[in-house]
Amino acid sequence: MAGLPVPVRDVRVRIQSVGACGPFARITVDFEPPGAAGAAEFRNTVPEEDLPAEYLHALWVGLQGGLDGVAALVTLTQGRHHEVDSSEYGFKLAGEMAGRAARVGAGLLPPEEAERLTKVSWPGKPGSTEPTTAG
Question: pTM (2 decimals)?
């Protein structure tokens, strides 16, 4: 399993339907190259009242799917749920988007792939008008 070559921090995903029911998930994730063992690892720093533990497994499955075999140390730094509209599906989808964003940010996918990640932002996102921040 190849490892993420460079850090990609502050990846933010906002899935939210406007004016209707639908999946709701908000996460912020930092991706780092894997540790000495080279294995994928997930850390959660978000209090359970902000993001209940019931969504963490689906989120991790989504993150792994989005990383597509690339090992990384993944740290969930922020998360929010909605009492009615959040679901495992929404957090799995958010994880997949964040993982793909990490691959784009690390140069493992072409920059054009960022255009497909409309619900995702990160410092230095190709085509973004957001200011970049020092790493």
Answer: 0.90
